[in-house]
Amino acid sequence: MLHTTGISHGSFSMSYLGVPIFRGPPRVCHLAPLADSIISRFAKWKGHSMSLAGRKCFINSVIAASLVHSMMVYFWPRTLLKKIKTAMRNFL
Fold first, then answer.
1. pLDDT digit string (tens) for 41-80?
2. Is 31 in contact with 71 (CB distance < 8 Å)?
3. Residue 20 in contact with residue 13, Cβ under 8 Å?
4. Sign of CA dihedral 19, 23, 24, 29
5. At what angle do helices 78-91 and 28-46 cross, to 10 degrees?
6. Where are the beta strands (DSSP E) in the chain?
7. 63 in helix, strand or coil?
8. CA 10/CA 60 separation, integer angstroms
9. Would you say 84 and 39 are in contact if contact means Cβ atoms under 8 Å apart?
């Protein structure tokens, strides 16, 4: 069936529109790569000379939007939310 339709066989650890798809309740191991990619954005922008208002705008627009996008699908574990909140505070 896969050969006739041309659809490739994938593993179960997939993502759809940037949100990981997995079976069962969300755990830290499922959402940790997404949290790490959000935190890595801070490291990329840390060296830029941005004002306090620019940093706040960056957090509100880019970081919060990506969090809201994935939070519409899953409830995030508190440990990851605390980790991201700490990174936001350190960025400001």
1. 887 777 677 888 888 888 888 777 888 888 888 888 999 9
2. no
3. yes
4. negative
5. 0
6. 14-16, 19-21
7. helix
8. 35
9. yes
